Automatic annotation (TrEMBL):
Its main location: membrane. Keywords: Cell membrane, Membrane, Transmembrane, Transmembrane helix, Transport. It is a multi-pass membrane protein. SUPFAM superfamilies: MFS general substrate transporter. The chain crosses the membrane at residues 12-32, 44-65, 72-91, 134-158, 164-183, 217-241, 253-273, 280-300, 306-327, 339-361, 367-389. GO terms for cellular component: plasma membrane. The keyword Transport applies. GO terms for molecular function: transmembrane transporter activity. It is found in: Cell membrane. This is MFS transporter. InterPro entries: MFS, MFS_trans_sf.
């Protein structure tokens, strides 16, 4: 797969992006938790700022990705992100920590134009039988930085401060933009005519998803699992502090364990990608995540929580690879950006609602209650996926005449 120039170049770009994102995100988390004395509302706000653009701009970005040249879009998005980071650095030096949130919001917004372009290039230039393996490889890359990212981000922030973290982040984004310039030149026929009505293209994307049974089912499952993820994502730091009695810096070790397991899980899926249907991967991943989420909320032992993080990490690639493969296999090339831009906001919108509620629910109920609720929602996601699993099973028993 690495012999494919598109796969090789995009993955190298993603290495630099992931490194920059982890350095930035951990620096912001630790910096803001320091100056706000671990205020859960502000900690939740960080997660909201990182994910809100996905809900707000994903559909618009996906539509533009179908209209614009993918290489050019990716290069400019990463370059503007780098410039934004350096502007934020100047604001922080003047004493405005809120600029960190603004800069993160802008960078995350630009990624909603860049990511669909990468998927569009994969769809066009990677053979269909290799798509699931490429998605597994991408997930393995994310897992590597789940291991390395927290350590690198924490080390840089604790030893060199927020300024050095932002400088390195900007450098990584700039490097990614440079790497992407080595992609082959965009084909002119890839670009939708600028004379086409933008609103009509938006509506066409919505109708495409509505008419596709698999994509409709994914949308429903996405909504429920997004809410589940949003409820617990901002609260991981409180598992370490309140449930386990550790300091906040210890969070990085749990994320490392989870990321190492994700790496192993991704490698396993790369080996079995052609043998297992993506809808089954997704169902198994959601089921295991539900059990592990409830377990983490109940556990007061470091060893048990660590084991649950490892098990969850092993099966998380099933969710990512299953979702991405189902979307790519059930979507025609000209609609790739719009389909991703339709389904992703459903997940992220519900995730944002969960994030907005997480701090309040923790304060009014308990950490355990929030994690139990999240686990139950993940179980519901498996149930909603049922019709798609049943349909696929029946289609194998009764082939079309």
């Amino acid at each position: 797969m690495l012999s494919n120039r598109y796969v090789r170049t995009i993955l190298l770009s993603r290495v630099l992006l992931q490194l920059g994102i982890w350095i930035r995100n951990f620096a912001i988390l630790l910096y803001i938790s320091d100056i706000t004395h671990n205020n859960p509302q502000y900690v939740s706000l960080i997660s909201i700022v990182e994910t809100a653009p996905i809900f707000i701009f994903a559909f618009i970005g996906g539509t533009f990705a179908d209209r614009w040249r993918p290489k050019l879009t990716m290069v400019w998005c990463d370059f503007i992100s780098a410039v934004t980071v350096f502007i934020v650095l100047l604001a922080v030096l003047s004493g405005s920590w809120y600029a960190l949130l603004v800069g993160t919001f802008i960078s995350a917004s630009l990624s909603q134009f860049s990511q669909p372009s990468a998927m569009k290039l994969y769809k066009k230039n990677v053979p269909a039988e290799h798509l699931q393996s490429v998605m597994a490889m991408s997930q393995s890359l994310v897992a590597i930085f789940m291991v390395m990212g927290p350590v690198i981000g924490t080390f840089i922030y604790l030893n060199y401060g927020i300024e050095a973290s932002l400088i390195l982040t900007g450098g990584m984004f700039l490097g990614s933009s440079l790497v992407l310039t080595f992609l082959p030149k965009d084909d002119k026929e890839e670009v939708t005519s600028g004379n086409n009505n933008f609103t009509k293209e938006l509506v066409a994307g919505l109708r495409y998803v509505q008419a596709n049974h698999a994509l409709r089912t994914l949308s429903l499952t996405f909504g429920v699992t997004g809410l589940a993820a949003g409820l617990v994502q901002p609260l991981a730091i409180f598992i370490a502090i309140e449930k386990l009695g550790l300091d906040k810096q210890s969070l990085q070790w749990f994320l490392m364990a989870n990321g190492a397991a994700m790496l192993i899980g991704g490698m396993v899926i790369m080996g079995i990608a052609k043998k297992v249907k993506p809808q089954y991967l997704l169902a198994v991943g959601l089921l295991v995540s539900a059990v592990c989420t409830i377990g983490v909320g109940v556990s007061t032992l470091v060893s048990v929580t660590l084991i649950l993080q490892i098990v969850s990490g092993l099966f998380y690639p099933c969710i990512h690879v299953g979702i991405q493969t189902l979307i790519m296999r059930n979507t025609e090339g000209p609609f790739m950006g719009r389909v991703g831009g339709t389904i992703t906001p459903i997940f992220m919108g519900m995730m944002l609602i969960g994030m907005a509620l997480s701090g309040y629910l923790k304060d009014t109920t308990s950490l355990l209650t929030v994690y139990m609720l999240s686990g139950c929602l993940l179980f519901a996601g498996v149930v909603l996926l049922g019709p798609l699993l049943k349909k696929k099973k029946e289609s194998t028993k009764h082939p079309a005449m």
